[in-house]
Amino acid sequence: MGSLQVYRYDQLAADEIRLLRLRPGDSNVLEGELVTCRLLSEDTEDTQSPAMAFRTDKDVRLVASGDFDALTYCWSAGDPTTHITIYDERDPEFVKGNIPLKPNLEAALRTFRKAIKPADELLYIWIDALCIDQHNKLEKSAQIQKIPAIYLQAHIVRIWLGKSSHENEIAMDFISELVQLDDIDKLSTHVLSDHKWAAFRDLMRHE
User: Among residues 30, 32, 25, which one has the least CA distance to residue 115?
Assistant: First the structure.
């Protein structure tokens, strides 16, 4: 990937997390900011606080339930093939560095970016590979313990199964059939379901 400025993570306090604010665009380079914030705990009485704000030297504002998405996906094997450029959250023109991306996460971010309209609010999303300093063992251990709360408070948890394909679409349609339990016996034995079962199996084995 050539010589790129590596992003250096700021230290997090015990009650803080990071969120990726993904920028819209159609360029080859993915861009965003990593915003430091605190989850709104269930027992807090500070319900009037702004949902999200930039980090300052004095405080970090709260992020309430539903103000961000979270992503779960299969980490790709092998080495990174590209990167995302991270800008300063307080100075949108200042590049703080770049974080390597493996193909599966790159494909997910490019797909999500297509759905962002320039006039819309930017997408805030929690992604473990980007929002946790993977080289900081202490931070990684502490942040992993927050994952249940992050998923619980996210607006949606996006499940990335890979790039769309005809076989994936067959598998996803078949899942909606499988939840109709009254038809499960027929789906298990009907010869026309063999292709659907194969597509479903391949989707579950997808890496």
Answer: 25
